[in-house]
Amino acid sequence: MKIAIVTGGSRGLGKSMALHLAAQGRDVILTYHSKKAEADAVVAEIEKNGRKAVALQLDVADHTTFTAFAEKVKTALKAKWDRNDFDFLVNNAGVGIHANFTETTEEQFDQLVNIHLKATFFLTQKLVPLMKDGGRIVNISSGLARFSLPGYSAYGAMKGGIETLTRYMAKELGARRITANVIAPGAIETDFGGGMVRDNKQVNAFVASQTALGRVGLPDDVGGAVAALLSDGNNWVNGQRIEVSGGVNL
User: Fold this and answer.
1) Does 148 qualify as catalytic in the annotation?
2) Alpha carbons 181 and 213: distance in angstroms, whole number
3) 159 is annotated as an active-site residue
4) Which of 159, 168, 201, 231 is catalytic?
5) Contact assessment for residue 10 and residue 38, using Cβ atoms and an 8 Å cutoff
6) How far apart are the first and last CA of the chain?
7) Inter-helix orientation angle 36-48/12-23, to 10°
8) Distance (Å, rounded) from C-alpha 198 to C-alpha 24?
9) Is 10 designated active site?
10) Which run of H or E residues covers position 76?
11) Among 142, 152, 168, 209, which one carries the catalytic annotation?
12) Would the pLDDT of 196 be above 80?
């Protein structure tokens, strides 16, 4: 039995990841920012299907809470599983901000730094001591770290930083046989960034026209990919960026 922590697991991509991991036989600790009812519903769905799950509150924008969060994880592991460690960490929680380079404010930039890059760095740092040797880390990037669309300069820069950071994690944690990889989604139909890809028909059609498989991605496309990367047969994949975009902008 293996336990995965999925940040931002109450909705969207994180929810799909949590459910796919559970379907694969993993137990899940998922985090939520403010929507406890949604997180509890995901826990209930996982437990209905025979796995164990716990939802813990976490604001990834506030790095000063990470030490206390690690203690909450330790308590949950002992209470729910009678264990002192976990196996997988998926750094998924994030927000999208659409603003042209010349109009992006320092406050917007700092918010993206804190939520995406700083959280991935320091939350992992606090949780790695609880991770079992031979564990695995999956960081979530974006296709926008490879190709460029107007309005995503700050967001894309953070995701590029995450991709570089992931290679360093893989290198430095290798002595403990911990792997670190990146999943980089393309445009997905969720409420992310105000639901633009899902709700704006012109945006949706444009993305589909640029994608080899002819459609926009769905949450289960990414949730399934994360679960596959964390399956038993993929323990030799390390330090890699895997784009899950249906072949966009090839």
Assistant:
1) no
2) 24
3) yes
4) 159
5) yes
6) 39
7) 20
8) 27
9) no
10) helix 66-76
11) 142
12) no
- Burial class of residue 132, CB neighbours in 10 A (0-12, 13-18, 19+): middle
Instruction: Scan for tokens 């000063």, then name that residue.
Output: 64
Alpha-carbon distance 32 to 18, whole Å? 12
Predicted TM-score of the model (pTM): 0.95
The predicted-structure confidence for 88-110, as pLDDT tens digits, reads as follows: 999 999 998 889 999 999 999 99
Q: What's the CA gap between 151 and 227, in Å, rounded? A: 31
- 168: annotated active-site residue: no
Burial 25-39 (b: 16+ CB within 10 A, else e): ebbbbbbbbeeeeeb
| pLDDT of 228 higher than 80 | yes
The 10 Å Cβ neighbour count of residue 149 is 15
CB atoms within 10 A of CB 196: 19
Q: Give percent of the chain with pLDDT exceeding 70.
A: 96
Check 155, 168, 201, 245 and give the catalytic one.
Answer: 155
Q: Which pair of structure tokens corresponds to residue 51?
A: 């796995």
Strands (DSSP E) contained in 2-143 are 3-6, 27-32, 53-57, 86-91, 131-140
Q: Answer positive or negative: Cα dihedral of 183, 186, 190, 191.
A: positive
Q: Which residue among the candidates 32, 141, 152, 245 is catalytic per the annotation?
A: 141
In the DSSP assignment, the letter for residue 195 is G
Q: At 217, phi and psi to the nearest 5?
A: -75, 160
pLDDT at 126 over 60: yes
Domains and CATH numbers, the chain: 3-190+219-243 (3.40.50.720)
List strand residue ranges (DSSP E) for the chain, in order: 3-6, 27-32, 53-57, 86-91, 131-140, 179-185, 241-244
